[in-house]
Specification:
heterodimer; A: 141 residues; mainly beta; Immunoglobulin-like; 5-stranded mixed β-sheet; 3-stranded antiparallel β-sheet; flat; B: 149 residues; 6-stranded mixed β-sheet; two-stranded antiparallel sheet; 1 helix
Chain lengths: 141, 149
């Protein structure tokens, strides 16, 4: 990862996914209250040059302000046309939530600009049955 | 006074060095030969043997195998499935907490390109979308090589 984000030279109106596209928001379909939920947000650089892209996320439930999703590494300089993903976590509340993911690009005015968004629902469920020690061995029959 | 020096037998290191290096070369060659993935043709069957522990109360789940390339940094889900490859699934019914083993046979379809493939083996609940959601999954590198198109 570069030390400084690379800026987009022309800052355009936000919200349309002009420079970035959130392609996938990965999260379990349901999670039990109090469990740590893993989120992965994949973003694509739609431009023809390397730009700085940042991820953000919030949990929609109850009254705003909504709690944010923690992304330990929340930005990167993306080469033209390439996708990258950011991993984040949140603790499942006692409600079903909607993950609202946001992407931002770094502008020539040295500010992050909101660009695209995508949502995914996570239902409140009982604890996912525990699977462990999964191994898969392949052989030619 | 006369100084004396103890005489030592001169050792020839060439032969033992050659033996050691030769042995290491043979071992390395054998290692890479053994690691080479098996070559397969269209119609051959790759058997995926699943083994896992389960601590739930029972239910139906889906086992999934996909062949392609494990690329954790550039693919949204960490795995890029080869387009010509099928998705191999098997529905299993788990009775309760236990260790389980299942076989899932995967027939190499026609039209796949000659290449060496990685594999993804995963467990899904029945409502999950194959390749996108999973409960548990593991990857294996260089599982087999399709010899020719």
């Amino acid at each position: 990862m570069e030390q400084q984000p690379i800026a987009v030279s022309v800052v355009r109106k936000a919200g349309a996914g002009v420079y970035t596209e959130i392609t996938v928001v990965e999260a379990p379909a349901s999670a039990s209250a109090g469990s740590l939920v893993q989120v992965r947000v994949s973003i694509k650089n739609k431009t023809a040059s390397t730009i700085g892209i940042m991820v953000g996320g919030a949990l929609e439930y109850g009254a705003s302000p909504w709690p944010t999703i923690s992304f330990p590494n929340n930005w990167a300089n993306f080469p033209a046309g390439q996708s990258y993903y950011f991993d984040g976590t949140f603790t499942m509340p006692a409600y079903a939530v909607v993950i609202h993911a946001y992407s931002y690009y770094y502008g020539a005015d040295s500010a992050w600009h909101f660009d695209d968004e995508r949502t995914k629902s996570v239902g409140l469920g009982v604890s996912e049955p525990n699977f462990s020690n999964l191994s898969v061995v392949y052989s030619l029959v | 006074m006369v100084e004396t020096t103890e005489l030592k037998e001169k050792k020839d290191w060439l032969v033992p060095t050659a033996v050691v290096l030769g042995g290491a070369g043979i071992a390395a060659g054998l290692y890479f030969y053994m690691k080479k993935p098996p070559g397969v043709d269209v119609g051959d069957v790759i058997r995926a043997h699943f083994k896992f522990d389960y601590s739930g109360e029972g239910g139906s789940y889906r086992l999934l195998v996909r062949f392609g390339w494990y690329q954790p940094w550039y693919m949204p889900t960490g795995f890029d499935q080869e387009e010509g490859m099928d998705r191999y699934t098997k529905e299993v019914n788990l009775q309760g907490p236990d260790s389980y083993e299942f076989d899932l046979d995967c027939v190499i379809p026609t039209g796949v390109k000659a290449s060496t493939y990685d594999a993804e083996g995963s467990i899904l609940s029945l409502g999950m979308e194959p390749g996108k959601d999973w409960i548990e999954r593991v990857f294996a590198k260089n599982v087999f090589t399709v010899r020719k198109d």
